[in-house]
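JOB MANIFEST
job_type = single_chain_structure
chain_count = 1
residues = 158
[input]
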Amino acid sequence: MISVSHLTKYYGSLMAVDDLSFEIDEGHVYGFLGPNGAGKTTTMNIMTDCLSGVMTMQITYAARNSDFDGFDIHEGDYLALLDGKLLGTDRDVSALLDGLSDEAASREAEFITVFYGEDVNEEDAHKACDAFTRKCPDAEVNLICGGQPVYYYIISIE
């Protein structure tokens, strides 16, 4: 879901966007219609600028042996990714979660959302969430059952 609430933007004394609010539910497609100067592009630019501060972390597994980015990867290893780049591999998910939570702390994350996948039980998901809460005590940390296949965890940090 995308939610925009009371968005207002001025360029000097010119109001380009005036108290705009809307929600877009998952699975829906919307478009902006309006005359030139109505604030369509400004709204999209503000929304995409907000995404630039979001980092994505993932934990998945190796389906086969390989060598990637200097890592010797073995089938069944867990893989930690940070914005699509391989951060580390291990046989222990908790070790990778510890490293990812260190990374979140070093970036002074304020908002952390942990989505856990279909192969993760609720108890383990809470332990993963606790790792981020311990390392980032001032952050708002949320745990959501994403139910995603392949990825044990998808974590967003802002």
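[summary]
The first strand starts at residue 2 and ends at 11.
The chain has a mean pLDDT of 93.
exit_status = 0
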